[in-house]
């Protein structure tokens, strides 16, 4: 897990049921990785557990081949069963955090929205990274509360674990996010909707690496 912790930086892409359909997900993710994505999360809210297991197994092998961190969203039992390298949980599983941390040995990330004190608590309880957002109106989660970018600065001052910025981030507003020095920047729609996923990922990766050291 130590080596995987070192991968918690840079461009973090998250799949989407509509934008990365399963019949082309490997090709799309490969393009993002070739463009510089450092972390790939499978976020599948519609498929059966059996299908998610198959997809996760395939994507984890792909990510390991390229020394990229693979993360599974929410599917705790599958992450434990398959020894998935990373797991990300949201609000619905916050109350179960200690049990999840005890049972799951990989990289564990937690969504903390706009709450730095919550993130600090999860850090003390064993989270490997935390995510904040949505910072802009998100096409993926249009009802998500928009939080102020100052949350990132506050988090950097208080936390020792890596932090991730997520929510409506695109190339037009990226310059507002990067000065806050998040360790990771999550992008969904603006990469997967691109006509050239690899080229779009390269633009993000190069911009992020130029500012976040």
Helix content: 25-40%
- Considering the protein shown, what is the CATH homologous superfamily? Aldolase class I
Largest sheet: 8 strands, parallel, barrel
State the total count of DSSP E strands: 8
Named CATH topology: TIM Barrel
Rg over CA atoms: 16 Å
CATH first level: Alpha Beta
User: Stretches where pLDDT falls below 50 for ≥5 residues?
Assistant: none
CATH architecture term: Alpha-Beta Barrel
Oligomerization state of this entry? single chain
Net shape = globular
Q: What order do the strands of the largest sheet run in, or round the barrel if closed?
A: 1-2-3-4-5-6-7-8
Structural class: alpha/beta
Kindly report how far apart the N and C termini lie. 22 Å
Proportion of strand residues? 15-25%
Mean pLDDT: 95
Q: What's the number of structural domains?
A: 1
Total helices: the number is 10
Order of helices and strands: HEHEHEHEHEHEHEHEHH
What this model shows, in words?
By secondary structure, the chain is α/β, with parallel strands linked by helices. The protein has a single domain (2-211), classed as Aldolase class I (TIM Barrel, Alpha-Beta Barrel), CATH 3.20.20.70. The protein contains ten helices and eight strands. The chain has helices spanning 2-5, 25-34, 49-65, 76-81, 97-103, 116-124, 150-158, 174-177, 189-192, 197-211, and strands at 10-14, 39-42, 69-73, 86-89, 107-113, 129-132, 163-165, 184-187. Strands 1-2-3-4-5-6-7-8 form an eight-stranded parallel β-barrel, surrounded by five helices. Strand 6, helix 7 (150-158) and strand 7 (163-165) form a beta-alpha-beta unit. Helix 2 (25-34) runs parallel beside helix 3 and helix 2 runs parallel beside helix 10 (197-211). The longest helix is centred in the first third of the chain and has 17 residues, at 49-65. The chain is globular, with a radius of gyration of 16 Å. The two termini are 22 Å apart.
């Amino acid at each position: 897990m130590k080596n995987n912790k070192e991968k918690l930086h840079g461009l973090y892409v998250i799949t989407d049921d509509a934008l990365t359909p399963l019949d082309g997900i490997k090709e799309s993710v490969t393009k993002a990785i070739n463009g510089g994505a450092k972390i790939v999360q499978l976020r599948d809210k519609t498929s059966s557990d059996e299908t998610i297991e198959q997809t996760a197994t395939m994507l984890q092998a792909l990510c390991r081949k390229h020394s990229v961190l693979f993360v599974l969203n929410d599917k705790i039992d599958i992450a434990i069963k398959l020894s998935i390298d990373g797991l990300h949980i949201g609000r619905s599983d916050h109350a179960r955090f200690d049990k999840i941390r005890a049972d799951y040995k990989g990289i564990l990330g937690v969504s903390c929205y706009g709450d730095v004190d919550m993130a600090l608590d999860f850090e003390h309880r064993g989270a490997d990274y935390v995510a904040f957002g949505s910072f802009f109106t998100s096409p993926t989660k249009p009802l998500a509360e928009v939080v102020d970018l100052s949350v990132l600065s506050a988090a950097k001052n208080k936390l020792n674990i890596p932090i991730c910025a997520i929510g409506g981030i695109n190339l037009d507003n990226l310059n507002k996010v990067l000065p806050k020095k998040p360790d990771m920047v999550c992008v969904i729609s603006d990469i997967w909707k691109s006509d050239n996923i690899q080229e779009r990922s390269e633009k993000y990766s190069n911009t992020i690496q130029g500012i976040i050291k």
